[in-house]
């Protein structure tokens, strides 16, 4: 049985490992010719914001959704960001297994808490998990719209697949709004 010091060090190690996500890029964007796409951490941050917003709009628990969003891609420190086409050829370990390995030396409460968050997200059987999954897809759509506004014309497949995967009314409404406006539209509120 690990002692308190090793649990604390194991938990700190997990925190350091999560820092890898700041440097790991979202590889699917490479297919669009984007050689410097967003990092997994950048993606996860906005997924968390979108998840909380969607949860508020859908009347579910925004804290639960944001927490699921925050942890939804943490496994990519170990397995990388495998693009959808790559999943046809590579069978990666389940996210729950990767998470269990990542937090195996952490404080018992951290192990239990993180495992439950990832389990709930992957099970996708609660309104919060459905909203969290929509947040992930909506963030991809929003990022594609931003890349398109910067001149990248190869992102339409990402927009279409993200839009087609949305389940909630709120996510579909936000996606439609995002598709009809400039990514800098928000500035007009304060500059007019």
UniProtKB/TrEMBL annotation:
It catalyses: a 2'-deoxyribonucleoside 5'-phosphate + H2O = a 2'-deoxyribonucleoside + phosphate. Residues 36-150 form the HD/PDEase domain. Its EC number is 3.1.3.89. Keywords: Hydrolase, Metal-binding. Its cofactor is Co(2+); Mn(2+). GO terms for cellular component: cytoplasm. One of its GO terms (molecular function) is 5'-deoxynucleotidase activity. The keyword Hydrolase applies. The keyword Hydrolase applies. Coiled coil: none annotated. This is 5'-deoxynucleotidase. It comes from Streptomyces qinzhouensis.
């Amino acid at each position: 049985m690990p002692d308190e010091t090793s649990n604390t060090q194991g938990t700190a190690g997990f925190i350091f490992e999560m820092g890898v996500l700041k440097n790991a890029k979202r590889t699917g964007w490479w297919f669009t010719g984007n050689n410097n796409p967003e990092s997994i951490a950048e993606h996860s941050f906005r997924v968390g914001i979108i998840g909380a917003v969607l949860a508020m709009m859908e009347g579910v628990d925004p804290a639960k959704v944001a927490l699921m969003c925050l942890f939804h891609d943490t496994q990519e420190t170990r397995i990388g960001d495998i693009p959808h086409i790559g999943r046809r050829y590579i069978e990666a370990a389940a996210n729950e297994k990767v998470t269990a390995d990542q937090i195996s030396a952490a404080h018992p409460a951290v192990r239990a808490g993180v495992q439950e968050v990832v389990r709930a997200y992957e099970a996708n059987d609660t309104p919060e998990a459905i909203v969290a999954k929509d947040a992930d897809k909506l963030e991809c759509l929003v990022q594609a719209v931003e890349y398109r506004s910067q001149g990248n014309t190869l992102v339409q497949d990402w927009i279409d697949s993200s839009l087609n995967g949305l389940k909630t009314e709120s996510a579909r409404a936000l996606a439609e709004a995002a598709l009809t406006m400039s990514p800098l539209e928000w500035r007009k509120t304060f500059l007019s």
